Amino acid sequence: MVDQLFDMVVAGSGAAGLAAAVVARSMGLRVLVVEKTGLIGGTTSYSGGVVWVPNSRQIVERGGLDSLERAEEYLDATIGSLHEREARRQYLRRGAEAFAYLEDVTGPLFYVRASNSPDYYPDAEGASQQGRAMTPLTFDGRLLGEHFRDVRAPLPEFALFGRQMLELMDVHHLLNARRSLRSAVHTGGLLLRDVRDRLLYRRFGRGTRLTGGNALVGRLYKSVLDLGITVERDAPLVDLVRDDAGVKGVVIERDGERHAITAARGVILATGGFPWGEALRRQRMQEVPLGYSATSPESQGDGIAIAMAHGAVFDRENSEGAFWAPVSVTKRKDGSLARFPHLMADRAKPGLIAVNKSGRRFVNEAENYHDFVRAMMGRDRNEDQQPVHLICDASFLRRYAFGAVPPLASERRRAVRSGYLIEAPTIARLAAGIGVEAAALGETIDRFNRQAVAGEDPDFGKGESLYNRYLGDAGQRPNPCLGPIARGPFYAIRVHVGDIGTTHGLSADVNSQVLDDRGDPICGLYACGNDRNSIMAGSYPGGGITIGPAITFAYLAVLHATGAAADRAASKSA
């Protein structure tokens, strides 16, 4: 360590941590980023990187019709809790400002898709049919030079051949390459890019075209490097330096030795929450088994636990402890375990159902991943539905991805051999394979098939909402989410209660100052990302409601630490 004196220390290098560092440096602060692992990006690198930002500059420039009042109506209607309401209002007031400021420093980060996802509850009061989400722009990893190695790779199951990252439109063209000349040409371009990367950039071990959360991390990391921000990798946070006046710095571990570092303006915790934190999960979420999180395994609640040891309060008033997602588990070719989150690619497509321990449907399969898992756990029925399996037929597997299995015969055979994909020639045999009564499963599929032909799902409403239809197959008529399960062999994948991050976190105010047990701010200590308690209070109203607030409150934390918060508030009211 060359310098032990900084103005601000940021713990964690996901979207929140990198954004905080960039904003702080742009305001003239000497900034240190400390990262527990040897890789930059945290769980953001695994994610889609989408942000939910009402009235963002991009949406306004596109002529989007929205208002903060409508956005607040939507959150009030879908969250149904007063908990964290003031923080939500702060987010709505300041979110667009935060992203505009960040992009003024870094250059463009996000765009709005031509076909954008609507809010997850499109029929709720205040919902936006056009959506409030923004997607990271594709980033060329070659711009990082040898620092490209520093960026945490995405989950290989979301990449072509496990190497080349894909945009949503890329997936569309891949699935239609045999039916459309345009899609065939697009797919050819992807294959050529993969060949070039393997020839010229083999040393990186993956493709250099970054999308989603990896693109966001890559672009932010490029700004960190360009701004000359000091980054210490393999340097976990182990303690805070605190006196009676507040937090004055951090203690990190580097090469087996501890170093105390002064942070004159403050410390920002952005260490990723505790999805893999055994002790915190045992204390706060003991009803959910550990081991099915699709997040970075190093996210173990370090920042939260260290802050609590210095008087910070852990807020657990949220309705749910995590942002839930159904997760299946398979073994990769290298022997490592893949925890695959079933987010948007398969459940809404026609020809798929989910069945419970009795072989019966229990939920609209096309609903958002958070609510799907709530149904698995029996939150509304007060009865656990597990074990839960997703079921489809041979026609589905030839057309769509099913979990971690792409529509390729070779991958399908490998998945069957590994036991990840359960295959059977008949529905009765499939029932035996998943441990349910054959008669019950047969009745379930017969009923579903009759409804699929009619294009209606009176039982659960699959395909009725705009959000459902957005995720379905537009070429399927009359309902883009309904198709029969009729052509053998038949297949099943077991899904578990998993997550894409935790919602419980440190109690903080509207400037992201961490609070003590009296509700007073701990001077010099801030939390953002999943270290801060979720302002959505355990709900999931739209894609991007994690990274959107993460970046916004990182920005607000820096403003407060620098004393710029009052100045900007005054300028906004003038």
Gist?
This protein is α+β, with helices and mostly antiparallel strands. The protein is 33% helix and 20% strand. The protein contains 17 helices and 23 strands.
Which tags fit this structure?
single chain, about 575 residues, alpha+beta, eight-stranded mixed sheet, six-stranded antiparallel sheet, 23 strands, about 20% strand
Helix and strand content put the structural class at alpha+beta
The amount of beta strand, in percent, is: 15-25%
Radius of gyration (CA) equals 24 Å
Low-confidence stretches: none
Q: State the shape.
A: globular
Number of beta strands: 23
SSE layout and pairing:
Blueprint: E1 5-11, H1 15-26, E2 31-34, E3 51-52, H2 57-61, H3 68-79, H4 85-106, E4 110-111, E5 133-136, E6 139-140, E7 159-160, E8 164-165, H5 168-175, H6 181-200, E9 209-210, H7 212-226, E10 230-232, E11 237-243, E12 246-254, E13 257-269, H8 278-284, H9 302-308, E14 314-315, E15 322-331, E16 337-341, E17 353-355, H10 369-376, E18 388-393, H11 394-399, H12 409-418, E19 422-424, H13 427-434, H14 438-454, H15 466-471, E20 490-502, E21 505-506, E22 513-515, E23 521-527, H16 547-562, H17 564-573
Parallel strand pairs: 1-2, 1-13, 2-10, 13-23
Antiparallel strand pairs: 3-5, 4-5, 6-9, 7-8, 11-12, 12-13, 14-21, 15-16, 15-20, 17-18, 18-20, 19-20, 22-23
Helix pairs in contact: 1-4, 1-7, 1-16, 3-4, 4-16, 5-6, 13-14, 16-17
